[in-house]
Amino acid sequence: MTAWLKGLSWTLGVACVGIGLLHLAAGTHCLPDMGVATATADSQARFLGAIFAGYGAAWIWAVRQNPIPAWAIRWLAGIFLLGALGRFVSLALDGVPHWFILVLTAFEVVLPPVFFWLAAADERRASRDGQYAGAV
Fold first, then answer.
1. Which of 62, 72, 84, 127 could pair covalently with 108 via S-S, beta carbons 3.0-4.6 A apart?
2. 105 Cβ partners below 8 Å, 6+ apart?
3. What pTM was estimated for this model as a whole?
C-alpha cells in the first residue's frame, strides 16, 4: 500500500505543481473554453495557479515524510474533494463545462476515497511496524 500511496501522491503533487505553474504563466489562455477573458478573470486564474502549485508542493512534502503522515494525506485529499464540490455547484448553477473539465471532475471525485483508503492502510502498517508517531 505504501508504494501505491507514494506513487499516487507524487504523481498528483507533481501534476498540481505543473498545472499551477502553467496557469500562473499563461493565465486564462491555457484554460479550455474561456473565450475572451477579462483582466479580473486572468488575474484570478494566475493567482489560483500559484495556490494550486503550492497545493501540489504540499503533496510532495507529505510523500517525502517517513512515514507518510496519514493526517496530511486526508487533509489534502479532502481539499481535492472540496474542489469537486465546487465543480458540481458550478454545474448546477451555470451548466455543463468543457468536456475536459468533466474529466478532471471525475478524477477529483474518484481519487480522494482512494487516498483515504491508502492513507488508512499505510497508517495501520506504520503503526504495526512501530513507525507511526500519531496524528498532529
1. 84
2. 84, 87, 88, 91
3. 0.89
